[in-house]
Amino acid sequence: MPKDLHVISGPDAGHMFRLFENNPLMLGRSRHVVAPLKDLQISRVHCEIELEDGQVHVTDLESGGGTLTGKPPFEGNSLVETIVKIRTGIPAKLRQFQPSIPDRFEAIVLKLIQKRLEDRFQSAAELLKELQRIAKILSK
Question: I want to staple 114 with a disulfide (CB 3.0 to 4.6 A). Which of 60, 80, 88, 119 is the partner?
Answer without folding.
Answer: 119
